């Protein structure tokens, strides 16, 4: 069964940093590109960043380019999102998922990130 467990969220002041983790199971992790998404209150879920199976190809939404870094450790079946220079508009529930393919409809419970002074 495909599962994702996101962690690492919390309350942080503007300008601060957080590192999110997503532990995946139920599929051959290294074969699949992974993405981070987020959903702010009252808004639609939006794509944040993506990374290929081997980690060689990475892309970011314009809103986080230069502040966020996505990475993965295939030995641990885990994908990460390092978030620096956080802004109040980064407040959202953050989710990871398989980017595309037969398992791409599976979502975890997400982890809440709140940026506030």
Summary keywords:
about 45% strand, 10 strands, about 120 residues, four-stranded antiparallel beta sheet, mainly beta
Shape by Cα distribution = globular
Treating each run of at least 4 consecutive H or I residues as one helix, how many helices?
Answer: 0
Major sheet description: 6 strands, mixed
Quaternary state of this entry equals single chain
Query: What is the count of β-strands?
Result: 10
| Helix vs. strand class | mainly beta
Alpha carbon gyration radius: 13 Å
**Lateral arrangement of strands in the main beta sheet:** 2-10-9-4-5-6
Helix content: under 10%
Low-confidence segments, given as residue ranges, are: none
N- to C-terminal distance: 40 Å
Averaged pLDDT: 96
Q: Spell out the helices and strands N to C.
A: EEEEEEEEEE
* Strand portion: over 45%
What does this structure look like?
By secondary structure, the protein is mainly β. The chain is 0% helix and 47% strand. The strands form 2 sheets. It has a 6-stranded mixed beta sheet with strand order 2-10-9-4-5-6, with no helix packed on it. Strand 5 and strand 6 form a beta hairpin. It is globular, with a radius of gyration of 13 Å. The mean pLDDT is 96.
What is the fold's blueprint, element by element?
Layout: E1 3-7, E2 10-12, E3 18-25, E4 34-39, E5 46-51, E6 58-60, E7 68-73, E8 78-83, E9 92-98, E10 111-115
Parallel strand pairs: 2-10
Antiparallel strand pairs: 1-3, 3-8, 4-5, 4-9, 5-6, 7-8, 9-10
């Amino acid at each position: 069964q495909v599962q994702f467990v996101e962690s690492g969220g919390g309350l942080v002041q503007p300008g601060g940093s957080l590192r999110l983790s997503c532990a995946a199971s139920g599929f051959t992790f290294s074969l699949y590109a992974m993405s981070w998404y987020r959903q702010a209150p009252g808004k639609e879920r939006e794509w944040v960043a993506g990374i290929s199976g081997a980690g060689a190809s990475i892309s970011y939404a314009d809103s986080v380019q230069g502040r966020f870094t996505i990475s993965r450790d295939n030995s641990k079946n885990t994908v990460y999102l390092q978030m620096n220079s956080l802004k109040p508009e980064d407040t959202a529930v953050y989710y990871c998922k398989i980017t595309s393919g037969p398992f791409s409809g599976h979502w975890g419970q997400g982890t809440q990130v709140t940026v506030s002074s």
